[in-house]
Amino acid sequence: MCGIVGYVGKSNAYDILVKGLHRLEYRGYDSAGVAMVNDSGKLNVYKTLGKVSNLENFCSDKDKSGCTGIAHTRWATHGEPSDCNAHPHFSEDGEIALVHNGTIENYKVLKDALIQNGCTFQSETDTEVLVQLIEYIRTHNDCSLLDAVREALRQVVGAYAIAVIEKNNPDTIIAARKSSPLVIGIGEGEMFLASDATPIVEYTKNVVYVKDNEIAVISRNEPLKLMNLDNEETKIDVKTLEISISQLEKGGYPHFMLKEIFEQPNTLRDCIRGRVVENGNRIIISGVQDSKEKFLNAKRIIIVACGTSWHASLIGKYLIQDMCRIPVEVEYASEFRYSSPVIDDRDVVIAVSQSGETADTLAAIQMAREAGAYVYGISNVVGSSIPRNTDSGTYIHVGPEIGVASTKAFTGQVMVLTLVALAIAELKGTMTAEQIAEIGSTLKKIPDYVAETLKLNDQIERLSLIYTYAHNFLYLGRGYSYPVAMEGALKLKEISYIHAEGYPAAEMKHGPIALIDAEMPTVIIAPNDHLYEKIVNNVQQVKARHGSVIAIVTEGDKEIRNIADHVIEVPAVPECLTPIITSIPLQLLSYYIAINKGKNVDMPRNLAKSVTVE
Ligand code: F6R
Predict the structure, then answer these.
(1) Do 147 and 197 lie in a common domain?
(2) What are the pLDDT digits (tens) for 483-493?
(3) What is the distance in angstroms between the CA of the first residue and the CA of the last residue of the chain?
(4) Which of 37, 70, 294, 441 could form a disulfide with 163 if both were Cys (CB 3.0 to 4.6 A apart)?
């Protein structure tokens, strides 16, 4: 949700800022802007509607001098996407420019007060209030920018990562965060800031993750300074980045999404490395082993997540209930936090999130911790807020996911949930050593089975041509395949803008069956599991109403191939591991349908990858 970048050093800031914006564009892309201050004390602000490439065209003939600057790529919350609402916003006297990721909840009250004091506003955003407030405080208190920012932040309610520069100080950026991510990169005679580490990694591996309520003074010539809102210096903890540049580029693929789909054999290998050992006989998940007592005594596990991560969590419920015999509830984090949840210290809450920054998931875990629950995080982005705000947890280690539609993170989450379930089952003794070894040995082969499944690419590309112009799709599955159906439908919706519904197959007869006709394709996930015969019936029910059926089946399937219009055959794996395999053809199907429709799969309209606002 919005990306911010900043640079102070010896090089031209514009080039670094724009490159950084391209890396952060997955966070929002309805408008973009930059502000640079040069050594002659000139502050240039350029901003425009549309993607970062529009901004580059707009700036082509402009003065881009200056070795200090800030930049922003926006996902609109307050005020429609427009040139005027784009960031950076600047103070009325043109002396201060500011970029912001987050929402200022009390902006209306602050704005009314500033208007009463004679301030005029250019935009409809909540952010402009912040920059005008900073100017107002600086002028009326005759104080430094740092003091004015600190005082302004004391008055603000909401979430923010901000970066502020001023005309008369080309050496310094003031930045701060609360509930929105902010990373500072420390180079030789230069410093960087960004919403995540991707714009920083090609310049330095040394980073500092700014904490909530911290303000940073980022200067060309001085060491980094961090302080709290009471002006007390806080500790600087420098971490080393583990991502590489090649992980951030398309590597010959036309889109990040396709690259990420095809990376899955490797990402799953990375995900299980060191965790499935002794030929699959032992599962080592240190987070679980360190939380042994909590999992052994858990009366219930609640999994909180959003979107695709919520679908992975539903699979987690089946896994944990099957393997560990602990009751599991799966909640949308956004509902959980407002549902007066009844939680106590015998509950274990698991938060699942690719970005580790989703605002609702963070709020849900905060609430769970306050109620005494033990909180376990499953995330991808190392150093993000969820791993820093949970008692223990596991990274999925699938590398940066740039495509807005989640693919490799989903299979990584399902893999980690499988490992967590097996590790708990081992602790609790709810599975025998033989049962664990049977699943464990197949887990090691999963990357190869995924590679095998990816060979279906050409078949699925051809199939996509038949269904590109359907207006509605139904996705059906049962048991472990029900969340897979929902995830397949979500993938199609978000990148092709075709309406699709994922449903438990048996529920079809309670409503959605009314929709079935020759115009509406149904995708049925029907691996050879204990519900296979039941789902054969569901396929018959669709065919009896002249619906066309695309079925994902296990290799060698006999029955469904005779009834369905198209079958996609995937390798046979134990039932609990089918979601990782059956989700692959659905990712490819949505990708090719969206491509056939000419859609931008990496940046679908209205979406942002990291949802750091409510
Ligand atoms: C869909 C997608 C989103 C995210 C959701 C949660 O493809 O990516 O639905 O899953 O916004 O994000 P994280 O996992 O970062 O908490």
Answers:
(1) yes
(2) 999 999 999 99
(3) 10
(4) 70
